């Protein structure tokens, strides 16, 4: 049997597993989520300074946060606006893969009813 503390140490690097666990018990995995959210914020700052750079991990964490947003609505209240702002500000400079991921996450949030359609 795997020691639970050892399992928790591996979770931040396994986003699909963490996503599954968060959806089952958001309160128990709030600390792990906040660690990922802080990592997202750091990657966001790097991307703002170098928008043309491809970042597969940033794309992965964008989708992860989009998937679990319903579990942490207060912590992520500004998340959709951050994504919209990033697209509006850097759309022509963003790497195409990052730009498509931003659009996919916004579509996901819209389909889940987490954001309103905008004109």
Automatic annotation (TrEMBL):
Predominant localisation class: nucleus
Family: Belongs to the SDA1 family.
One GO cellular component term: nucleolus
Record GO biological process: protein transport; ribosomal large subunit biogenesis; ribosomal large subunit export from nucleus
Full protein name: Protein SDA1
InterPro entries: ARM-type_fold, Sda1, SDA1_N
Domain of life (superkingdom): Eukaryota
